[in-house]
Each structure stands twice: as structure tokens, then as C-alpha cells.
Amino acid sequence: METVLDILAIMQRLPHRYPFLLVDRVVRLVPGEQIVALKNVTLNEPFFQGHFPVKPVMPGVLIIEALAQAGGILASETRGPEQRGQIIYFMGMDAVRFRKPVVPGDQLMLEAKVLKMRSRVAKMAGRALVEGQLVAEAELMASFGESP
Fold it and tell me: pTM for the complete prediction?
């Protein structure tokens, strides 16, 4: 099954809110397998005021956070609606690489694939692309916690 989610559906699946919600749309989602999501990068992002005022560049840690949020949506859909209220905690990352800067006007395509999904822990491979070019990649791990 392929699923497309708008911002309202994303907000039902993630606890994040402005300015920390970093996924704008899900364009492809196959529970248990993969997700493709979008983040539109604009000069209005609050982090650009200080990173860097003369040449704005999206912080790499926020690119990884965007990948983790996309992975969280995938994990939420994989686990099903009965467990949707559980918070997903980002717990680790491996093999992180940044390939190119991300700047205002770019559209990040966030891809995550399930490597392992257990009852309490998920491991995914994530990639971020701009116009088909790889800008960052990482293996991401998350744990499932209790609802707030």
C-alpha cells in the first residue's frame, strides 16, 4: 500500500511542532519498507539567522533530524494505529556523511528504509537528496516509549 500524507496527517503522527517540525509532506510510504518525504528549505527558517548570516547553510544536524522525523513517520505507520500514540525517541546514528550544503530554495527529498523493526527499537537507512544529488546519509536508530 502506498500512502501520501499532508502536513495535518504528519502532525497526527509526530509530536514535533514549529519550529522543529521538519517534514512538510510524505509523497510515498510503504509501511514496513520505505518512506519518501519532502522538506522545503526557505530563508524564513529560524536557524538561518545565525547559520550563517552571510551565506545561509542548513545545519547538518537538522538534515539528520529531518531524516529521523521521516523515519518516525514510517515507524508509526509500520507499527499501526493501535500504537500510534507512543512517542518515538531518536537514540542513535551511525555512518553519517554530509556530501553537499543545503541552502534556502532547496527541496530536501528524505528517504528512509527499514533495516530492522523490533517491538521496542527500529533501525533505518536514511538519505537526503536535493535535485537527485545526495547531500547526506546515515543509519538511524529509534526506540518506542510511552505516550506523554
Answer: 0.94
